[in-house]
Write a sequence for this structure.
């Protein structure tokens, strides 16, 4: 878990502004769900056998109730959609979120126990157009940020019938090779053979290479959907790479699955991912409702920015620093700052009666654009020295003139 301090937070705020503006243009509305959910929801939604549910949840009890810190946002949004009857609002629901998520993983660069995602869910549309709209929204954020060396990886995990046929084919293929598989893949052979395709273990790589491909097991409907997504991506000039081994680590996916990867991230190379989850809303108690979405890691986006030298915002200093001599002058500053702040001027002062020299140094250190010097004589004359810090020039002004001198 990390603290975000002034100096770094400005970059986050600028990114959040980009995400919100992109969401506005795509006409997605924000949803905020609690950081805790009932364990049952996440277990059902994400899947009992996934790493997330079986190993990585921060879980706790309160009386009879069992809770987890949310490890992801899709199951919570699906719950909210059902609980608040959002379907009755008519049409599709286009929802986005930004917030903290929690997974008890082994921390490393780009992998934290509390991390942040931005994501979007488009609920109520089954057509390939919705898949492509979601992908376009995700990519638009990276374009706005200026990250362009990214690869969209695309696959289909099919409908349940496709997956059953594929799982059986995988099982049949890997069974004779069982002794050569990594330990973790051996375990997955009976529970979830598709996850073997996801394996990063070295000994699995040559065995994976000859494995059956899901594309050959898609039902005609699933194949048609996947083809439609590909045609639309090409129409939109959105580059992508087909990755027959892309399976994703959450169980709710159906049909389209995608990931966005970056060469700047090292071993945790996924900037984001998503796909279609046509059965999840029903799984959590709603009517059958098709849906598609994505989520991206904010820390990983920041790592990519750093690698590429992209700065979205610098910490801004105050517009005006009140340098005061004596208690009366300090009180005068305190009384006069609110009106200036009301005009949008960022004001600050010294709060501990330091020397003029120390206050000027502080104004410089904080990056103040102007300093105004307030002492007994100035108060008596009602004329004050206003110093432009960058240009080191000074003018004498009345209090009424301060704002006009400072506002650009
Ligand atoms: P996910 O692939 O589990 O998908 O997570 C999405 C992104 O969150 C990852 O690609 C990564 O950038 C970031 N992330 C995940 N775990 C960590 C971690 N421990 N530390 C730092 N970053 C991390 C989902 O969460 C799905 N809910 C996406 C989705 C939305 N599918 C449909 N709608």
């Amino acid at each position: 878990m990390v603290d975000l301090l002034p100096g770094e937070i400005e970059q986050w705020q600028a990114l959040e502004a980009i995400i919100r503006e992109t969401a506005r243009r795509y006409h997605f509305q924000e949803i905020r769900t609690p950081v805790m959910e009932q364990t049952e929801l996440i277990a059902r939604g994400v899947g009992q056998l996934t790493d997330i549910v079986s190993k990585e949840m921060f879980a706790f009890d309160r009386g009879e109730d069992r809770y987890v810190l949310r490890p992801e946002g899709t199951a919570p949004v699906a719950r909210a959609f059902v609980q608040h009857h959002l379907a009755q609002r008519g049409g599709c629901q286009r929802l986005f979120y930004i917030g903290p998520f929690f997974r008890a993983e082994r921390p490393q660069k780009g992998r934290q126990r509390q991390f942040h995602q931005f994501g979007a869910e488009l609920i109520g549309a089954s057509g390939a157009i919705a898949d492509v709209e979601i992908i376009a929204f995700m990519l638009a954020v990276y374009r706005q940020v200026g990250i362009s060396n990214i690869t969209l990886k695309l696959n289909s995990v099919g409908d349940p019938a496709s997956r059953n046929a594929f799982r059986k084919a995988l099982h049949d293929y890997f069974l004779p090779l069982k002794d050569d598989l990594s330990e973790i893949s051996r375990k997955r052979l009976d529970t979830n053979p598709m996850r073997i395709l996801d394996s990063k273990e070295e000994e699995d790589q040559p065995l994976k290479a000859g494995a059956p491909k899901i594309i050959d097991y898609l039902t005609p409907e699933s194949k048609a959907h996947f083809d439609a997504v590909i045609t639309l991506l090409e129409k939109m000039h959105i580059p992508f790479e087909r990755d027959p081994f892309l399976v994703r680590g959450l169980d709710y996916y159906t049909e389209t699955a995608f990931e966005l990867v970056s060469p700047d991230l090292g071993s945790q190379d996924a900037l984001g991912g998503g796909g279609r989850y046509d059965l999840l809303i029903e799984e959590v108690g709603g009517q059958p409702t098709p849906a598609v979405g994505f989520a991206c890691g904010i820390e990983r986006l920041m790592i990519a920015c750093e690698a590429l030298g992209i700065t979205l915002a610098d910490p801004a200093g105050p517009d005006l620093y009140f340098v005061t001599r004596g208690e009366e002058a300090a009180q005068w500053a305190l009384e006069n700052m609110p009106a200036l702040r009301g005009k949008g001027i960022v004001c600050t002062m010294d709060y501990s009666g330091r020397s003029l020299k120390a206050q000027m140094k502080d104004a410089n250190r904080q990056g103040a654009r102007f300093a105004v010097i307030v002492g007994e004589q100035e108060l008596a004359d009602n004329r004050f020295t206003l110093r432009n810090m960058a240009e080191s020039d000074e003018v004498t002004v009345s209090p009424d003139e301060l704002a006009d001198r400072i506002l650009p």
In short: The pocket of histidyl-adenosine monophosphate is lined by residues 72-74, 103, 105, 110-112, 115, 117, 119, 121, 249-250, 270-275, 277, 293-297, 299-300 (CB under 6 Å). Residues 198 and 247 are 6 Å apart (CA to CA). The first helix runs from residue 9 to 25.
